[in-house]
Amino acid sequence: MIVLSFIAAILVVAAAVFVLLGPPRIWAMFGPADLGDVDFARLARRDTPNDSLACLPQLCAAKADVQAPVLTGSPADVFRVVQAAVSGEPGLEQVHADSGQGTLRFVQRSSLLGFPDTINVKVVPAQGGAAVLIYSRSQLGKRDLGVNRARVERWIGLIQRAANR
User: Fold this and answer.
1) pTM of the model
2) What letter does residue 59 receive in the DSSP assignment?
3) To which H or E segment does residue 29 belong?
4) Beta carbons of 106 and 90 less than 8 angstroms apart
5) pLDDT block averages, 10 residues each, the chain of length 165
6) Cα dist. 149→18, 35, 61, 95 in Å?
């Protein structure tokens, strides 16, 4: 009984510390939330199932989970469409944008515990318009329960709908 009370007390204290400090400060102890830029042409996927890639075979060395969409319009126009399309995502922070390079980077946090994921987007010229490459990866853990793949697929849908308006 004493052991259970002790364990319960530890859990209460841990929960209180988590709430008081906040998830961003807790997860920052494991490294920066923003995992930085990627080179899609040389990208090596993780050994653990906590990332997802949308790309075209001729643009990425790594095997993609989803085919990157190719949208009509100039890369600059598609870049603006992408930026606007995903801006309403919950828990999303844009941490980098370079329209000249066609690169965007975001950190998106899960709603309950604030787990950070980094999402890299690159808009590149492609036959018939511009391709939108997306790489989403978790900062923490070895599995993501399909969150990154679902995000990549959701973002592709958002971007395609925004492009068709």
Assistant:
1) 0.86
2) T
3) none
4) no
5) 77 63 66 88 91 96 96 96 96 96 96 89 94 94 89 98 90
6) 28, 17, 18, 21
